[in-house]
Amino acid sequence: MAFLIRTIDFTASGREIIRDREHDSDTLSIGRAAENDLHLPDLAVEQHHATIEPAQGGQLRAVAAGTLGFTQDGKNVTEAVFAARDGTELGFGSYRLAFSQDEDGPVTVTQTQVNEDASDRDALSGFALASALPSKRVMAWIGLAAILIAFLAIPIHSHLTRDMNVEPDYDGEGQVAMDASWSTGALSLAHHGLEDNCEACHVKPFESVQDETCLTCHESIGDHAAIDRQLTGRGPMSRGDKIQWDIAEYFGKEGPGSCTTCHTEHEGAGRMEPTAQKFCAECHDGMDKRLTDTTLANAADFGTSHPQFKMLIYTALGQDKPERWLLSDDLKEEHGLKFPHDVHLDRSSGVTKMARSLGNKGYGEALVCADCHTPSDGPGGFSPVNMEEDCEACHSLVYDKVGDTFRSLRHGSVDEALADLRAIDRTPRRPITTNRRRPGSIGSASVPGARYPTFGRPRSSLIAVNNALGPDGVCGECHIGTTRNGRADVMPVTIPEYYLVLGRFDHDAHEQEDCTSCHLAEGSANSNDLLMPGIAVCRDCHLGEDSRVAEVPSSCAMCHQYHPPSGNLPADHPTQQDDKVARVSRFGR
Length: 589
Known about the structure:
Distance between the termini: 99 Å
Strand order of the largest sheet: 2-1-12-11-10-7-8
Number of strands: 20
Number of helices: 15
Largest sheet: 7 strands, mixed
Shape: elongated
Helix content: 10-25%
């Protein structure tokens, strides 16, 4: 059996639009759901209201699928059997389905929608809830007034009448009622305690947050540079920017360089969004033309426009303070130590064999960087190398044994070490050499069979002292000797705790890399080699913020801190070379 479904619609002018489609099936599904064969979009019709199926004698049967029935020629029924040739009309809500058939042709189903009679609507309107309520216009004005009172008048009134002498409590609720409805988004994690305390930052209604308000909590923060130099370095505004800032200042927003220029809030929970690269480039791109006295190089993009790094190092023995030098291949560091990295990292060297023989110290088949360099939370990410903890397992300072007690030279003070040497007993004693060879030139292939030296029975204390502090002595093996006030001494060890003063580097974020990927220690035979990677090494992964090919697109804020930690500093060099930056010590402490 086939059906011809004819849909009759009407335009706004009353013209009929007739659409025919064939349905080649024995059954028809009727309902409001779109998947029905006859889709009747009327709320009075169930999702799956009824089904038309064949009956005996070539007739059709209409069966209601749910609790609601339908009409057949005006009568309410839940099931109807009829012959299409005789014609009949089924009613579902406002829709009428007229069935007819000519000879052996398909069953024609004509679908029309009946408009509700105006008199019926008037008769039913008296029973509707709308007859007992004000008109829609009045209800709209009432709703608007309620919104203005609840979300505008009450917050403003409570803000203006609050006690101004009460200090805002970070963890408490504010005095302004219903102000949360004005929030444009969640605060960052750093300010999440102020979610219900808007007046802590927004002191005056309809005015942007002022720098003075920010500094009530962040009072110790320093300016990036002197304000007048910042304005000069930024350069003149374009006409469009000036118009925008004039409008912003009219509504209480402070000018460029204010706290809110960089630190935007209500952007959602989480960390506060870092400052965009564009903000930094506004000043630092071509800054040398505006600040002609600056020593800073121009920078606009880490991948394409950024100077080579400057390292804070000591370039001369006995230097009082470190200096910043542009990183280059011929830059050498003078720290007072003699330490060849290649010997310690060579798998076949005497040093490696010595460490390998000390199985109880946890050394493996070869020394690795982590055997001597210990991670820490300090600015450089590693603790300073300590002689007693990191070196003495191989470089023993034992010079005597009394019973079961070993006597060691005291490290860290030349005077104390000299006192130990002068107190050596002159009586004969058994040498305390061991079977393990000493790392370095002693015990190497050039001096086969060499052992740890013994200070037993020296000719005189003076000779022992001079030998210890000499180039081949126990102290001179690692330290550079000198004289001080006519007495033998060693140069102080001067190693900065952090080389990149104006940038920060997180070793934890690079833990997937090997140390030697950036620090070429395996090929360094000279302790003066500065094993710091240049900008080209960093650019293997890091490029500018807008780079599409970088593994790690990097903005300025990833490595640089806008606010210096020590307050106002010179504009062209916002840092201080003090003990916080470079911790000068003796003997690696």
